[in-house]
Each structure stands twice: as C-alpha cells, then as structure tokens.
Design a protein that fits this description.
Blueprint: H1 19-34, H2 51-64, H3 66-73, H4 91-104, H5 106-127, H6 133-139, H7 141-147, H8 154-164, H9 170-208, H10 228-247, H11 257-260, H12 272-280
Length: 283
C-alpha cells in the first residue's frame, strides 16, 4: 500500500537534533544513495548519477518534504535508523516508518525475499544471459567442468570458443585474459575445496571399513563415454545447482538489493501457487 500523492510540506525533523540523530541522518542518506530509488528524470544517453549527486538530491528532499522522501526511499532505510523520525507527529511519516519496520522484520520478510528472488530467477532464465554457459562457468568454473565441460566434444568446444570470441579486439583480448586468469584461480580454489571434502569423507570411510585395496596396485581410472541422455541429465543437474545458488544468496558478485527490495518481482496472485510449490520442493 502506498500513498499516491503527498503535497509539498515542510516537517522540521532537524529541530533540536542531537549529534546522534545527525549521525543517523548521514546513515539514512548513505543507504538511500546506494539504493535503486528514483532521483530525477534523465534523458536517453545521459550519464548515470554519481553517489554524491544522488545523496545531495535525497538530502534536499529530506529537508523539504519528509513524507515524500519516505514515500520514495523507505525501502532503503535501515530499521535502526527509523529513530530519526520518532519526534514527528505526522500520519504519513508514521505510516512509512511502520512499513519499514514490517519490511525489515526477518520473520515477515523471509518469504517476500524468496518470492522476489524466484520472480527474478524466472526473468533471468527467460532472458538467458545470466544463466548462459559462459556466465555460469565464470561463477563456478570447477563444477561447470565436472558436469559439462569435460563431456563436450572437440567440435562443441570449438563452437563454444568461437561464440565467445567473435570480432575480439586486442584490448578485449587482454581484458579476457585477465578474466581467464581469474577463472583459473577460482577453478583451483574450488577444486581444492572439493578435494578436501572428498578426502575427509574417505578418511571417515577408512575408519569404519577395512579394505584390502591397499594391497592392490592402483589402476588408472578409465573414463566411460557419456551418452547424450547422461549429458542432458548432468547439464540439468548443474543448472539447478546454479538456480539454487542464486536463490540462497550465494552469488557473490550479484547485487541482491536490486531484487530483495524491488516490488517489481512480487508475484501476481496467479503465480503464488508456483512459488509455494517451488519452496515446498526445497530440501
């Protein structure tokens, strides 16, 4: 629920404020400037506003019209910063402060965040870019190789490389090399983590079961060819893992605030059953 129009009105929130309250004000403006709220209309091609410019616009509005400031930016204000508005005896201000408290209550907001991430997930799946092979490989190169990469044929590898390096300029090549170096480092880190887990599991098995394998010479492991159906199953399993990683908030480079605080991803009534089914199937 929102209030459609708030007339210009001055609410003197800074009258007799303490140093602590001024500190809270600074925190509010920082949070708002980092958010995805509306600051001013911009023309196509116009440069994005800087953090400082957004902060100045927010500060000006806060000094002139507190209810309108809250209408625009309440979703970006921290629960602990709502004390800044305690001295104001104004219905609109109290309304939005209550909205902040409900929004920031983890008991009430948990399902809202899940719903919004699920909505964003469906949109990104449809758009294709975020869950393309190239992007998923960049986020988890080791698991991509385990489930998909090592099973690609030579022709599939060549086709994938060409699709990722069409008309590549030298500057882009250098940047791509930096990204590849980072991916290799990330791959080794993830591989080491996976091997450590496997080694720990093997140690536990050795403690419970005695084996005569130590008396036998280790034989090189022969890779069995993977059938098309198995390839499809492995790809589906890996992709689902990436979906679950996104839903769990584990994609470190992704800005979840643009989803978790965005009503655009709230489900329509017809979609509620789909979300409930998805969450009920979670392990």
């Amino acid at each position: 629920m929102t209030i459609e129009k708030i007339p210009d009105m001055e609410v003197d929130v800074e009258k007799n404020v303490t140093d602590d309250q001024l500190s809270v004000k600074e925190s509010i403006l920082d949070s708002v400037a980092k958010g995805q709220g509306f600051f001013k209309s911009q023309q196509v091609g116009e440069k994005d506003l800087t953090f400082s410019e957004k902060r100045d616009i927010a500060a000006d509005l806060l000094s002139k019209n507190v209810p309108l400031f809250l209408q625009r930016y309440w979703k970006f204000i921290k629960l602990e910063d709502t004390s800044y508005f305690d001295s104001l005896d104004c219905y609109e201000v109290k309304f939005y402060v209550d909205e902040i408290k409900k929004f920031r209550d983890p008991r009430k907001n948990k399902n809202s965040v899940k719903n919004r991430r699920f909505g964003a997930l469906r949109k990104m799946i449809k758009e294709g870019a975020y869950f393309s092979d190239e992007e998923m490989k960049s986020r988890n190169p080791f698991m991509f190789d385990q489930f998909i990469g090592q099973h690609l044929s030579e022709s599939e590898r060549v086709a994938a490389y060409k699709s990722q390096h069409t008309d590549e300029k030298f500057s882009n090549f250098l940047l791509g090399q930096v990204e590849r170096n980072y991916a290799n480092t990330l791959y080794e880190q993830q591989k080491s983590t996976d091997e450590a887990i496997e080694e720990e599991e093997d140690d536990d098995d050795d403690k419970s079961v005695e084996s005569d394998e130590s008396e036998l010479e280790d034989e090189p492991e022969q890779k069995q060819p993977v059938t098309p159906d198995e390839k499809s199953r492995l790809r589906s399993e890996f992709t689902n893992m990436m979906y679950e990683s996104f839903m769990a908030g584990e994609d470190k480079e992704f800005d979840y605030s643009c989803v978790d605080y965005n009503e655009e991803f709230d489900p329509a009534e017809k979609d509620v059953d789909a979300e409930e089914k998805y969450f009920n199937e979670e392990v």
